[in-house]
Amino acid sequence: MKRLAVVASGWHFPLHFFQKIAAQKGHAGWEVDLFCISHRDPSFSANEKKEMLARLGTTRREHYDRELYERIATVEEIQALGWDYVLEPNTIGDWGNTNQWLLKHDYRVYDKFLFTHDDNFILTDTMFADILPQEDWLILGNSDGHTSRRLRRWLGLPKEFTIRGSFEFFTREMLDIIDGKFDMSEVKLDREGEVSTSGVFGELSDWNNTVTPLITLIKEKKLRPRIKFLSRYYRMSRYCLEGERGFIHKTEPLNTFEEEQGLDAVELYYAKPKPRLVYLSTARVPDDWAHVLQTLTMCEAFADVGAEVELVVPRRSRTSDVNPFAYASVKPNFTITRLFCLDLFPGTQRRFFYWLRTISFFIAAKLYLAHKRYDVLYTREHQAGLFFRGFIYEVHAVPKANDMLYRRLWKRARGLVVLTSFIRNRFVTAGIPQEWIQVAPDAVMVSKFSTPLSKKEARIELRLPNNAYLMGYVGTLKTMRMEKGVACAVHSLGELPPEVHLVVVGGETEDIAEYKTLAEKEGVAGRVVFVGKVAHAKVPLYLKAFDIVVAPFPDFEHYRFFMSPLKIFEYMASGVPMIVSDLPSLREVLSERTAAFIPPADASALAKKVLELRAHPEAAQTMAEAAKEDARARFSWSARARAILRFIKMHYA
């Protein structure tokens, strides 16, 4: 069980804030402790707020303030909600309260922290459920908006970032870096003994310096890539509207434009219109290529979380008449529209015919969508930038030709969805603003990989050897003509006992022939079963039949940084122990707790790891169950779709 500490600075005491934090739900696997470090009794706030509320107008900001301060909490009410209430001397505010908590508690017993003021308007009860599973940050701030953003943009100056000290999540690792205490050396103002809120807006501006040493340290230690934000709008995110000196409506004129944009985005998000999403793809549907399955599954997931989805694809020659929903094992909760394309010589991969087919399809799509009402155009095809602008582009690989043409195409998109942080960093280096980019690894639906059959029953049904120790590989055998590790698996059999067999599910006919020849050359042909292509609905049954599954990718740039292979998530969902190459892209998803790692494409290391897992079946199964739980908790398709729709709504509504 992981632990979160919420440490709130107690000064304004709206009951709404304490209730909303205490009511957060869905944070499975986390224990949450609530602490209020108060600098005055709530009764002082009750008198102040009563006087202020009487003077409020009718703007939407003031509406939020009326709701926030409908009731001032008493100490007893705060404690009844589960908060540990402590009254401390009123010295420095902001992280001064936090330091008072850190002085009396061992922060090392917690995994993450929320340090927050109590004048924040919490908008949702799913905040912890959404945020706690995220692992790619040291600090997660409420907003990246900066008071000087517009001025800097007008002057052509680089974007600055700030941390406000009002509402931030921290990790234990970050507290270790600052030695378990915030540096207050830049702060001179001390309000010990004061029990009233300053009426002069700038009187407490010295407390803004509480963040200065931390920002300096972040820059010196080059930690900026691991400092993330929930929103690009100043003080506003879909989780929290930050108060300023106790109220949402208080602000400085320089901030108003950014904040009003943020409120527009927040209110649009919570209006929850059913977005009409068109998914544009050049894929042949149905087909068993991973990108086709991923596209159909994402359409299903978008529809599951509330979007109205239409998949638009070319009408290809020699397309199977099999029901695409049944073939991909997805619900028919979205529509598929097929448009004309010049599909001459459909079996050829020659560049001329590929471009003829692709360009003709996009022309047809342009004409079709010109008369159609939709909210979001979503695609994995970078060529869409030749015909459309304002679309959402999901990127699965970075083209090597990283030239001005590609940059112009990317910049015609409204936002980018990428599989790994490495792809995001490559785009940022190419000049794409980081706030345009959402990292969303691939995913899996764990329930689809549950089968009532035993391993023995699955082998009987699939006619696989029952007494052998089966090492399985599932998926295409090559990507962009690059080997994916099947050769490594074949070579490893030469160093394994004869009862260990390899079963390869998937692959094109010519690729299978190549690996059959390799198996014969290695003298292990009798221990390798090439199943070929199967309907995706049968993949769970094959995984059930295996003792272990492998993905010994070579160390190519694409595999090292840019891939997020579906097979890995399906391996996780299967509950079968897995052995994978130790590559940064896979480390973003897996750890030693969930997988066994080997050097890329190292057949000897693979053989040794197979023997190790075979010799310790209980430890191997514990690892596999941990992977399955991770798949369920962190990598569901619906969570991925929901995160992408949030990204679209919040940043590009």
Topology:
Layout: E1 2-10, H1 15-22, E2 30-38, H2 42-53, H3 60-68, H4 75-80, E3 83-87, H5 95-104, E4 112-117, E5 121-122, H6 127-131, E6 139-141, H7 149-155, E7 167-171, H8 172-177, H9 212-220, E8 227-229, E9 240-241, H10 253-271, E10 276-280, H11 290-304, E11 308-314, H12 324-328, E12 335-339, H13 351-369, E13 376-379, E14 392-395, H14 404-411, E15 415-418, H15 421-429, E16 437-439, H16 455-462, E17 469-474, E18 478-479, E19 482-483, H17 486-492, E20 500-505, H18 509-522, E21 528-532, H19 539-545, E22 548-551, H20 557-562, H21 566-574, E23 578-581, H22 584-587, E24 596-598, H23 603-615, H24 617-634, H25 637-652
Parallel strand pairs: 1-2, 1-4, 2-3, 6-8, 10-11, 10-13, 11-12, 13-14, 14-15, 15-16, 17-20, 17-22, 20-21, 22-23, 23-24
Antiparallel strand pairs: 4-7, 5-9, 6-7, 18-19
Beta-strand segment tally = 24
Supply Rg.
28 Å
Q: Distance between termini?
A: 37 Å
Low-confidence stretches: none
Q: What's the short version?
A:
The protein is of the alpha/beta class.
What does this structure look like?
It is a single chain. The chain is an alpha/beta fold and 653 residues long. It has three domains: 2-271, Spore Coat Polysaccharide Biosynthesis Protein SpsA, Chain A (Alpha-Beta Complex), CATH 3.90.550; 276-443 and 638-652, Rossmann fold (3-Layer(aba) Sandwich), CATH 3.40.50; 446-635, 3-Layer(aba) Sandwich (Rossmann fold). The chain is 38% helix and 17% strand. It contains 25 helices and 24 strands. The strands form five sheets. A seven-stranded mixed sheet has the order 3-2-1-4-7-6-8. The protein has a seven-stranded parallel sheet with strand order 12-11-10-13-14-15-16. α18 links the parallel β20 (500-505) and β21. α11 crosses α25. The relative contact order is 0.08.
